[in-house]
Amino acid sequence: MTVGIPEEGNPIIQDFMYVDVPRVRSLLGQLYQGTPEKVEEVSEKLRRWGLGATLGIAKGEAGKQSIERNQETRSYGELHFTMFEQAAEAAGFLHDISDVALVPPNWTNGTIQEVAPEGSIVRLTAASNIVDGHYFSEMVGHMLEANILGGRQKTAKSVYSMMKIMYPKGVVLRVMPCGASRPNHGFVGTLLERSEYIDTERSALYGRYGNEPREWVTVGIVARRGEREVSPAMPEMDAGGGKGFQREQLDALVQYFSKLMESHGANESPTYPGVAIVPLAVYRTIVGRRA
Question: Is residue 171 pLDDT above 60, yes or no?
Answer without folding.
Answer: yes
